Amino acid sequence: MTVEVAIAILYQNGNFLMQLRDNVPNIAAPGCWGFFGGHLDPGETPEMALVRELKEEISYEFSGELVKFGRYPSDRVMRHIFAVPLLVPLAELELKEGWDFALVTVDEILQGERFSKIANQVRPLSSIHRQILLDYLQHSQPLENITDK
Known about the structure:
Number of domains: 1
Largest sheet: 7 strands, mixed
Radius of gyration: 14 Å
Helix content: 25-40%
CATH class: Alpha Beta
Strand content: 25-35%
CATH topology: Nucleoside Triphosphate Pyrophosphohydrolase
Distance between the termini: 42 Å
Structural class: alpha+beta
């Protein structure tokens, strides 16, 4: 059975908000940086699920138009990916799920890792989320234009 999830590429000033997932073995990508989002509840569209998940996970109430970036299917998961502007300062968000969160730079995406102040260590980006970001960066504009910001 394929599980459907809706996840957000949250962007602000050329950086991307990511969640450091809890470092517990029974979740996907434990201890890795990943996107915010989650499973679709029965009867939900991916858009509805994403708006709900952003509110539940970081108290972000996005009411604008969600731009679908694409779908990333695997044997077990159908990922619906949306590009969503982060229109508030980080200080206005409240992390309710995960270990840490931070704006990740293009250089960190290319390196595949980022330091977490809370974990006090460098943690890897989830491989699928890193690949989605690399695809997004390639699709949206040349890297040299993003890294100059």
